[in-house]
Amino acid sequence: MMLLSVRFLALLVCSLAQPATAQDTVAIDRILAAYEGDNPGAVLLVIQDGAVLLQRCYGYADLEHQKKMTPATNFRLASVSKQFTAAAILQLINAGKLGLSTTLSEAFADFPAYGDVVTVKHLLTHTSGIPDYEDFVADTAFNPQIKDQGVLDILMKLDSGYLTPGHQYRYSNSAYALLALMVEKYSGQPFAAYLQAHIFKPLDMTTTLAHEAGRSTVSTRAFGYTKTNNHWELRDQSATSAVLGDGGIYSNVLDLFKWDQSLYSDGTLPDHLVKQAFAYNTLTSGDTVKYGYGWHLKQNESGDKVVYHTGSSTSFRNIFYRVPARRFSIILLTNRDQPVEEDMLILAERIAKAISE
């Protein structure tokens, strides 16, 4: 009942602060002032103890048609999508369909020999050494855009990875495209359909989807913009925007609220698998990898574990920032190519600090 009432209130008003103080709101509006006015904007949701602490909307979702941001505005999540790809894989592992030790060669017939030692765990934790598919795709390659299968096709033509699996952390979008294809292989469903049936629908995430042009439609959509010569230019897609597993999910703060809360319950992901997703990993050298399964990991100034993920693609910058021990989360979604991705973490931490002071 509380989830429904929160969602209903959020649909009615963009400025929801309960029980955040007026001082909190003023401080956060100051932090996010660049998104105000006649600019590509942002939607912010701050969650504390299962309730909406603060909700704010800034700027425009669609400059050409003068559509302002609302809590129901759907953004391309970019790499924030990876947590859903990882969750799907963990569900299938829990069902006994595959394991963390399943290799690329086992999953994909005729994969080159370097796939013999690349496991699902390597892919999840960015320790696979798999080459970045973006290095092989021209920025102008729009017709057609590359998809997850195209990523596999590229990797099948190579004879080695960048490095020995497990020896080094090297972030890889290719890894998550391969994981999406594994979801298809071991579930017998297309990736988008699997997510819909096993994550989005059970959580009543009614407008969230892995978007496939010509097959699905993103409702109430934020379009992406880049600044050129001091002018905002519509640039919503790139040659790689159709790859689903690494960044192709669209969602809004209302649906992500439900996903956030599900991670505290034994729901779409059993509690022991959530804990695995939020656990540090180790290289063969013994060094710690500050990445779980679909989540970056760190400690905040108070010593609490933070699980988060930024997302950066053509004209979208996002962050999902969680402090599970305090049941505190920040979701910030934007439709512009500024700032650089790493600065989204700084923004989230500035917002968290403003609320705690």
Task: Provide a descriptive summary of the structure in words.
With 357 residues, this protein is α+β, with helices and mostly antiparallel strands. It folds into two domains: 9-35 and 58-69, no CATH class; 72-258 and 266-294, DD-peptidase/beta-lactamase superfamily (Beta-lactamase). Helix content is 31%, strand content 19%. The protein is built from eleven helices and 16 strands. The protein has helices at residues 2-12, 22-31, 82-94, 104-107, 120-124, 148-156, 173-187, 191-200, 253-262, 271-277, 342-356; strands at 16-17, 42-48, 51-58, 60-62, 67-68, 75-76, 209-210, 225-228, 231-234, 249-251, 281-282, 288-289, 296-299, 305-313, 316-323, 328-334. The strands form five sheets. A seven-stranded antiparallel sheet has the order 1-3-2-16-15-14-13, sandwiched between helices. Strands 6-10-7 form a three-stranded antiparallel sheet. A two-stranded antiparallel sheet has the order 4-5. Residues 1-12 have low confidence and may be disordered.
